[in-house]
Amino acid sequence: MRFKPLSSYENNVQTKVGLSFLSERVVFRGKDLHFELKDYDWFKFFLFGITGKEFTRQELEVLGFIWLSTSYPDARIWCNRIAALAGSARTTITLGLSASMAVTEAELYGVKPTKCAIDFLIRANKQVKKGISIDRLVDNELSSRGMIYGYGRPLVREDERIPHVIKYANERGFGKGEHLKLALEIEQCLISLKNVGMNIAAVYAGLAADMGFDANEFHRFCTLLVFGGMPPCFIEQEEKPPGSFLPIRCSSIIYQGPNKRRW
Amino acid sequence: MANKTPANYYSKIWLEEPEEDNPFLSKRQYCYGYDIAEEVLEKASWVEYLYLLFGGEKPSAEQALLLDKLAIVLANPGIRDASVRAAMNAGVGGSTSASSLMSAIAVGSGQFGGAREIHTLVTQWEKFGTNLKQWQAFLLNPNQHQDNIDLWQKYEHPPGFDPYATKHSSFVMSALKKLVSVTPGNALIWLLANYQSLEESCKAGMTLNSVVAAAFYDLNFNAQNSELLFLILRLPGAAAHAMEQQQMGWKKFPFYNDAFTLIDDPGKQGELMDYKDL
C-alpha cells in the first residue's frame, strides 16, 4: 500500500482520457472529438467514453434496449418518486434528476443487484467451464452468500421485461451467448429448488458479460440504466400545482414511538 | 374522481397532530415524544436535538458536550479536502447552492477520507472494540472480509490512516486530546494510548477520520448513523468556501492550465474551419 509521495502529483496530471486545447481542438480518448468522433451517435460515444472500446451496431442496439426496457416513467418507483417530488417542490430539473440518479445505486434494485449479477455470472461461467455442475454452483452460492443476485424480485414475481429483452437480443444474434445461456439454466435450477425465477438483472448481466463487460465496466454503463423514465416524472409534476404530488395528511403518519414526554 | 384511501407512513420518530380545520396543517409536532415547539425549542440545544434524532433518546451532558466538540472538529474540513474543493468548483461557476452541497456530499462520501471510511471504521469498532491485535491485522488487510463485490471498491489504504504519511499531523493529535478530555466512552482514550502501535504496524499516519470514528463510537452511534452524521456535519465548511469562491470570482480560482499532460495526443487531425466561409 505504498504510493509515490504526494509532491510528485502536485500540479501534475498525466492523462490519457483527453484534454481540450481551447480555441484549437479537443482530444477524447486519443481521438479528435470534432474530426474523428463527429459521426458517433451519443450512445456509442458514451460507451466509448466508459470502456474505450468500439461496439458494433447490433451490440449498441441491444445495450440501448437494456436502458430503454427498464426506464419506466412511473413515479411510484422510489428513484423516480424523487424526480416527481423535485418537480412538485419546484427545484431545478438537473438537481432533481441528479438526486434521482444517485439513488439508483441501491441494495434492493438498480445498480447493485445488476453489478452483482454480472459478477456472479462471470464467476459462475468460469466454474462451469472447469466442470462444476449448475446444481453445485447454485448450492455453493446460496450457502456462502444466502442469495443469488439476478434471481427473485421484490414486490412481484413475473418480470415483464424478460421476454421483450430476450426476443430483442435473439433478433440481433445475442440470444445464444454463454453467459445468457447459463443465466437461463440457473433459473431452471432455482425454479425446481426454490420456485424462484430470474429477474431482469440476470438477463442484462448475461448479455453484457457476453459482450465482454466486466463488473466495473457494467457498473459504469448502469449509471444511466433507468434514467430515461425520470425526466417525464419531473416534468409532469412541474406542470401541476406546486406541492400537489401525493401530499400527506398528518394522520397518515402512524406513530409507533415513545409516549409524549417532557424534556 | 374520488381520492382513494390515503397511504400511511410508519415512524418511531415523528408524530404530527393536525389542526381541526385542515388535516394538512400540523398543530403540534413531536420527535420521539418530545413536543418540538414547547419542549425541544425551549430546552434543547442543536446538538441535543441532533442526538435525539439519531439516537432516540436525549444525550447525557457528557454526550452532548462530545457531540458539540466533534461538530466543531468536522464543521470545516478546509480547502485542501476533496469535498470542500468540490463545493468550491460549484461555487466558482455560479452553480446552484444545492449543487455545491451535493458535490461536497458526493465527493466526501468515499473510502479515502470520506464518510464510507467512517462507516468502515465504526463497523470495526463494533467488531474489535479495543483489541489491538485485531485492529492491527485489519489495517494490514482491510479487505479480508470483503469477498463479495459491492458498489464500493476495495480499500487501497489502511482505513483511518494516511498512506502518504508515516505519522499523524499535530492538528489530528490536538483534536484527539481535546476529544479525549470530554469523552464519556473509552474508544478515544484507547486510541490515544495505542495510536503509535497502529501507525507502526500499518506504516501510515493516523488521520482525523480515526479520531472521528472513535468519537462516534463513544457516542453510541452505529456505523450508518456515523456515516450520515459525518456527511451532515462537514457541510458548513463546504458551503462557506463555495460562497467565498463565488464572491472572489473565477480569475482567482486555479484552472491548472499547465498541470495536465496528454500522453496519447493524436495531434491535429485537421484545420479549424472559418464558419463564415461555410
What does this structure look like?
The complex is a heterodimer of chains A (about 260) and B (about 280). By secondary structure, chain A is mostly helical. Chain A has a domain at about 110-220: Cytochrome p450-Terp, domain 2 (Orthogonal Bundle). Chain A contains twelve helices and five strands. Chain A has helices spanning about 35, 40-50, 55-70, 80-90, 95-105, 110-130, 135-145, 160-170, 180-195, 200-210, 215-220, 230-240, and strands at about 15, 20, 25-30, 30, 255. The radius of gyration of chain A is 23 Å and the shape is globular. Chain A starts with 12 loop residues before the first strand and ends in an 8-residue tail after the last strand. The relative contact order of chain A is 0.15. The mean pLDDT of chain A is about 95. Chain B is mainly alpha-helical. Chain B has three domains: about 15-45, no CATH class; about 60-75 and about 110-145 and about 155-235, no CATH class; about 80-110 and about 235-250, no CATH class. Chain B is about 50% helix and about 10% strand. Chain B has helices at about 35-45, 45-55, 60-75, 80-90, 95-105, 115-130, 130-140, 170-180, 185-200, 210-220, 225-235, 235-250; strands at about 10, 15-20, 20-30, 35, 160, 205, 260. In chain B, the strands form two sheets. Chain B has a three-stranded antiparallel β-sheet with strand order 2-3-4. In chain B, strands 5-6 form a two-stranded antiparallel sheet. The longest helix of chain B is centred in the C-terminal third of the chain and has 16 residues, at about 185-200. The N and C termini of chain B lie far apart (about 60 Å). Chains A and B meet through β1, β4, α5, α6 and β5 of A and β1, β2, β3, β4 and α1 of B. β1 of chain A pairs parallel with β7 (about 260) of chain B, so a sheet runs across the interface.
